């Protein structure tokens, strides 16, 4: 896929349809870039407010600076409520396949790639779930460490199931990750982002990037903010790493304190019939503490990442993911490692894993949907109260009666014309009124309260729009809608202003990453972990979709070719899963029961050999399964071949347009100018190529382009 430019617009398919050529996601990207790229000029500028003055240094982005100073609360795109309503019916209220292409067109490739990855993981979880259920019904795993039980048939079956399930998890994770690489390559090629990766010097600085001064880009030559690399290193090693280590150590100390309380609770209340439930409280408190500490540390990680001041969005996000994953790994898995390899209590490991997994899933789903939805409704109620408290009693009663009649008529019409809605669709149809409902409601109210002046204004507006539409093919001007003080109504921007901000799916990726770790690292101790993860994912897809459609601002789209740093994080987790599962096999007592006279060093040697065998199997699978499907490689090779052939033809045509010598010029004057259609067509093609070659290599605006072309008054809007 080739980047769009106005000078080559005629070569792009569908460019004639100005309303359909760009997708909703691409329009939001263009608008967001225009807003973010507004920077202070040479010498800087200052903004004087009633209580303070904000200074903008040279080259700093203006809008992100205003947001950081709380002058601008938020910059967001408005939802297309009609499009969103149809998308919600196919996505949120349906249990079928996700409409990934429609999600991509509306929310962007980054969010669509996340939901494709989530759906792919849900499909892959069916295999360990079915095997885990089978293992569980066979009797579960019996945790004994006494070598004298080697003749116990039940224990032998449990040991075999434990080893097979651990080995299956290691191979399954490898196949799943390799399978996903191929799927995301197909999606990236289908969405035109397969070649989206660029060198950092070719990318524009992120809006919040602050440099010490302006310097030319070594590739494009454009002036942009410059920040010395040594400052990154100083901030990272002097501030970021010490604070991160302090947070990790503090969390570890809190974990030890809770385990001490857990031991005391087991000692005093384990045998009690009425107070046995107290033994589960420490683990529940620990799970809640993990959720709260994650929220606090994530804000701290954002502050630390801002101090490091990375130039591009990719660098910023990669280092942010590294910080968050490091802390999350300790908070989510630290207690399990402590129980498995320090206390060596497999039964307690099973109980702790089940408690953490289920509590975390329920808490996250409530925090993602119920809490933001209730906060939005409370804010909307407060905003409505502020708007209506200045109205008189008669006006308020009339307005409420109009809304009630309108809603009753719409409900009756919907029951007559539309099919019966399913319970799932009825549950997920909550949210703010759609744009069509607001428009119909306003027309209904204005029809009763419209004055002669308002009619004249609307008549003039319609005449102006009709006259304008005859002169230009551009989009028509927005309809003039005069306000009526006696009938106030909240606009769509005011309704969506109470929603939460959704920047990127980082939290959603992180939640699934932790769940993947629970399933992969310790699921042999709790075979039903994959079943819990599968059920949660089936709900998570609808929960996240409901959140995007009803409780958050419309995010600005972003073009990506893969899931980024999360792919490497999951691959590292897969390698760690092999080590942990082999260590769990050693902790299970299987080796001691088979070889009771084997020394401790011999047991370690057997675990290491088994680990290397599984790692070798993972490497073989990685080599045999290519990351990119064969048909994608063929199509990309065809595109590259067409590019090279076009460049060769263009070079040959340009070679004939070189300046001729004086003898050639004199001889050419004596010859008759060719007037054949083929010669004229060739001449026009050469002129077209020359014009395309004169374009700038950078996206900077050329002033000469405005002076050469005459102004067309009929096709411009001042």
UniProtKB/TrEMBL annotation:
- UniProt-recorded name of the protein: Anoctamin
Q: Where is this region: Disordered?
A: 403-448, 653-688
- Alphabetical UniProt keywords: Membrane, Transmembrane, Transmembrane helix
Native organism is Caenorhabditis remanei (Caenorhabditis vulgaris)
In its keyword annotation, does this UniProt entry include Phosphoprotein?
Answer: no
Q: Which family does it belong to?
A: Belongs to the anoctamin family.
GO CC annotation terms, alphabetical:
plasma membrane
Any idea which GO molecular function terms this record carries?
Answer: chloride channel activity
Q: Where is the composition biased (Basic and acidic residues)?
A: 436-448
């Amino acid at each position: 896929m080739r980047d769009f430019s106005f000078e080559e617009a005629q070569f792009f398919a569908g460019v004639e349809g100005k309303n359909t050529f760009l997708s909703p996601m691409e329009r939001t990207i263009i608008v967001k870039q225009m807003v973010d790229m507004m920077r202070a000029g040479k010498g800087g500028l200052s903004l004087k407010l009633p209580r303070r003055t904000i200074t903008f240094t040279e080259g700093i982005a203006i809008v992100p600076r205003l947001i950081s100073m709380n002058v601008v609360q938020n910059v967001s795109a408005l939802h297309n409520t009609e499009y969103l309503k149809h998308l919600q019916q196919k996505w949120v209220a349906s249990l079928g396949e996700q409409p990934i292409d429609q999600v991509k067109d509306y929310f962007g490739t980054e969010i669509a790639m996340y939901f494709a990855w989530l759906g792919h993981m849900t499909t892959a979880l069916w295999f360990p779930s079915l095997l885990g259920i089978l293992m569980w019904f066979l009797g579960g795993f019996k945790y004994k460490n006494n070598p004298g039980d080697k003749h116990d048939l039940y224990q032998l079956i449990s040991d075999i199931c434990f080893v097979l399930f651990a080995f299956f998890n290691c191979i399954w994770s490898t196949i799943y990750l390799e399978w996903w690489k191929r799927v995301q390559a197909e999606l990236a090629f289908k969405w035109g982002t397969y070649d989206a990766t660029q060198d950092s010097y070719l990318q524009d600085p992120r809006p919040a990037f602050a440099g010490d001064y302006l310097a030319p880009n070594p590739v494009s030559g454009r002036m942009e903010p410059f920040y010395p690399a040594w400052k990154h290193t100083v901030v990272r090693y002097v501030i970021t790493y010490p604070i991160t280590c302090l947070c990790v150590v503090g969390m570890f100390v809190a974990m030890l304190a809770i385990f001490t309380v857990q031991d005391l609770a087991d000692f005093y209340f384990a045998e009690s019939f009425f107070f046995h439930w107290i033994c589960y409280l420490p683990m529940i408190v620990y799970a809640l503490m993990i959720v709260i500490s994650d929220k606090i540390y994530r804000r701290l990680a954002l502050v630390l990442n801002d101090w490091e001041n990375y130039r591009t969005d990719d660098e910023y996000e990669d280092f942010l993911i590294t910080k968050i994953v490091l802390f999350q790994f300790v908070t989510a898995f630290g207690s399990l490692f402590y129980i498995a390899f320090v206390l060596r209590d497999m039964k307690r490991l099973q109980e702790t894993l089940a408690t953490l997994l289920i509590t975390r899933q329920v808490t996250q789903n409530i925090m993602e949907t119920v809490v933001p939805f209730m906060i939005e409704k409370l804010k909307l109620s407060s905003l409505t109260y502020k708007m209506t408290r200045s109205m008189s009693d008669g006006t308020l009663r009339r307005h409420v009666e109009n809304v009630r009649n309108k809603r009753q008529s719409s409900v009756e019409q919907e029951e007559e014309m539309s099919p019966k809605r399913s319970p799932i669709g009825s549950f997920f149809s909550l949210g703010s009124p759609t744009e069509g409902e607001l428009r119909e409601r306003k027309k209904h109210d204005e029809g009763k309260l419209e004055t002669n002046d308002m009619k004249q204004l609307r008549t003039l507006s319609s005449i102006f729009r009709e006259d304008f539409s005859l002169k230009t093919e551009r989009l028509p001007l927005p309809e003039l809608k005069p306000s009526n003080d006696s009938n106030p109504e909240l606009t769509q921007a005011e309704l969506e202003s109470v929603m939460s901000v959704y920047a990127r799916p980082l939290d959603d990726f992180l939640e699934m990453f932790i769940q993947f770790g629970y399933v992969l690292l310790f699921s042999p101790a709790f075979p039903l972990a994959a079943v819990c993860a599968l059920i949660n994912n089936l709900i998570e897809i609808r929960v996240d979709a409901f959140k995007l459609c009803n409780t958050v601002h419309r995010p600005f789209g972003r073009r990506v070719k893969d899931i980024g740093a999360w792919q490497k994080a999951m691959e590292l987790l897969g390698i760690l899963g092999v080590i942990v599962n082999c260590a769990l096999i050693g902790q299970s007592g299987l080796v001691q029961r088979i070889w009771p006279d084997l020394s401790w060093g011999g047991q370690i040697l057997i675990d290491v050999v088994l680990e290397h065998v599984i790692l070798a199997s993972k490497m073989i699978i990685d080599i045999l399964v290519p990351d990119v499907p064969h048909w994608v490689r063929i199509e990309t090779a065809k595109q590259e071949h067409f590019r090279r052939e076009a460049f060769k033809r263009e070079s040959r045509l340009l070679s004939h347009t070189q300046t001729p010598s004086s003898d050639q010029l004199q001889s050419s004057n004596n010859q008759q100018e060719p007037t054949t259609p083929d010669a004229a067509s060739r001449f026009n093609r050469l002129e077209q190529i020359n014009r395309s070659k004169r374009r700038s290599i950078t996206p900077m605006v050329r002033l000469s382009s405005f002076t050469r072309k005459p102004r067309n008054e009929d096709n411009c809007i001042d």
